[in-house]
Amino acid sequence: MKSLLQRPWFTTTIGILAGILILSGSFYYLFREHLPQSTFTFLGERAFGDLSLEQAVTTEDAVGAGGGSASSLRMYPIVADEFPYPQEVIAYEYLYQGELPDLTTVDPTVYRRVNTFALPTVLSDSFSQLTIGILSLSTFNNLGIQTISLNESDETGYTVALDIPNNTLSISRQNEYWQTFDTTRTLSASDIPSNEALIEKANQFLVDHQINASSFGTPTVDRAFIDPESWVPDAMSVIYPALVEDTEVWSLWGQPSGLSVSVSLRTGEVDNLWAPGAYSLEASAYELTTNSEEVLAVAQRGGLWEYMPENADVTYTFLLGEPELVLAEHYQYDAEEGSTILYVPAFQFPVVEGDADAPYQRPWIIVPLVKDILDEAGRSFPTEPFLLEEKEILPTEVVK
Asked: Which residues cross the membrane (predicted)?
């Protein structure tokens, strides 16, 4: 009679248990210690090359790329005869009436994110030696874990997912959760909690699951996309901006960028969390603009890639408050290496006085200060929408 150590199933079971123990420790590490330290490696001036998007994405590259390409975002293509009836042309302008801070005193450091998100090697090694059913993983070379998904035993509980290649971690509800309440009821303005209530719920979730948010800033609730009179979303996000050298990171579109916690308006519970994985930082110095008029011109139209029509039927005017210095999240594209995330010096203008009749209410305007990026916007930004010529489509005979 074979001893336990000689039985294949025993060896497999021990391997699986070892993997689970290692995995549990890894998850604790990822959620407690995955955030970057407030240190960086300085590489000198212009170490990341030209920061403009055009170095890798050209107009030709954008053909067939859809709305996600950098060029297509700038061109705003509209088919000339697509709208046969006159439509109201709306413009938004954002005015700053104060005096900008001294641009020559702004720190010119640009940071580059270098992803370091990885599971301990011993974890991949343990799993790669397992035999699962008829499959022996040991017959494959250098296996590495790319994604991990774990479900709570309660079918209405959470799924925890790690995406190593994309350097992200997320928590979401399992499918059965959505069957436990009525999703057909139309929500109204009365269903929207206060910002304080949403932030309190998000903070408690982080505490309950021991998620370390010390490398993120003050949480913010963005209500810009909500129009309570016509549409209320099922959930709202509480966003904790990432901190780099104690400076908040914001997207160029005017929202904080970092840890996001989504709170359901139907259940009042957290149903989603998203965060970047571990990364280190490299730093380099770049020339910043010293032209206040250039900064104000970008702010006036609502941001770097926003379009302001010259002959609008209606113009909604907003007043901006004193700007704060932040870091804007900027994507640098390379044909071979893909995209790299940079953090560049920028001004964040709060909207302090708006127009109640405007369909879109924007709380912040972000203006990057790096000369490369502003120069590219000046070269590429159209004075009017880019029109695609509509071509005649000839009928094709189908042969049966």
From this structure: 9-31
